[in-house]
Design a protein that fits this description.
The chain is an all-beta fold and 310 residues long. The chain has no helices and 25 strands. 0% of the residues lie in helices and 46% in strands.
Length: 310
């Protein structure tokens, strides 16, 4: 336990988000325009950032709710995002609590193309794109996983999840690694909805994950439900059905609340010190807290450490 509290830092700062009022949640990247896209909880908008952190508004939340998940479909030149009227959030009208919406934007013009209402009393707070560009969104409050079909949301899970977060779909795979904030991490077949939980083997902590990302035989996790919070990589066996080792990328220190990330080639970029810990359960800044600049960190997966296990 003492060793687990020791700070670890193998990542470098890519740039700082100077607007402390933003409270960034999710991030993605468009290789064509070479821009990062970041959602804002408190400012209720999507912003673009270049490699130096230069910021511009891309879209304002049409319902004036926090902007949460985001995914870029560079091939089809569209951007998908969600906005969520969090239950109990003071910056959201009480009449809207429990609503969430999936939005489709023109990636180059920023115009809104499609608006899809989510399930009532839900929280469509996380999203990935399946093969073919279909958004697949998870409901962190209701436990459902939904796939877009003909501009409607179809539930595809079998009710196995309590609070599914951002899950990982590996390249050319019909299997998703779904992190449940409460139960751990499962492998789910996207066609059948069947799920099988990964064993922790009494050694690996696979719950409390906010964002999960796949690269080769690695799963990279932003694990803000762990103590201390951390960004970590899990190595899978040859069948991609069991964790065999882990390596901490960043833990403790100035990491703050890591939320989500994105791969750009072999580089994994992720949001650190997002600011969530400075808010109370109503989304109001705690009297004794102050929002500080969030950071976008970068980690090169080609880096290796002796043994590769922590």
């Amino acid at each position: 336990m003492i060793a687990n509290r020791r700070p670890v830092s193998r990542a470098q700062s890519a740039f700082v988000i100077l607007d402390t009022a933003l409270l960034p949640e999710d991030i993605d990247y468009d290789s064509t325009s070479r821009r990062f896209f970041v959602t804002s909880i408190l400012q209720k908008k999507i912003v673009t950032m270049d490699a130096s952190g230069g910021e511009r508004d891309f879209a304002i939340s049409p319902d004036h709710w926090p902007m949460v998940a985001i995914k870029v479909d560079a091939e089809r030149r569209v951007l998908w995002a969600t906005e969520v009227a969090f239950n109990g959030f003071a910056i959201v009208p009480k009449a809207d609590w429990g609503r969430s919406v999936l939005l489709e934007y023109d990636l180059d013009r920023g115009t809104l193309l499609t608006r899809i209402e989510g399930p009532r009393n839900g929280n469509l707070g996380d999203m990935v794109l399946a093969d073919g560009g279909d958004p697949v969104v998870s409901d962190g409050d209701g436990g459902g996983i939904y796939r877009v079909h003909d501009r409607r949301l179809d539930r595809i899970d079998h009710g196995d999840f309590v609070s599914p977060q951002t899950f990982a779909i590996c390249r050319n795979s019909n299997t998703a690694f779904v992190p449940d904030f409460v139960r751990g991490t499962a492998m789910m077949n996207l066609a059948t909805g069947s799920a099988r939980w990964l064993s922790t083997q009494g050694h690996y902590d696979l719950d409390g994950i906010d964002g999960l990302y796949c690269r080769g035989n690695l799963l990279i996790a932003a694990q803000n439900g762990a103590s201390p919070e951390r960004v970590i990589s899990f190595s899978l066996d040859g069948t991609s059905s069991a964790v065999v080792s882990q390596r901490v990328i960043e833990r403790g220190g100035s990491l703050g609340d890591p939320t989500h990330g994105v791969f750009v080639g072999r580089i994994f970029y992720y949001i650190a010190n997002s600011g969530w810990s400075s808010l109370d359960e109503h989304g109001v800044l705690n009297p004794s807290a102050a929002l500080t600049p969030a950071r976008i960190m970068r980690f090169d997966l080609s880096e290796r450490t002796p043994g590769g296990v922590e």
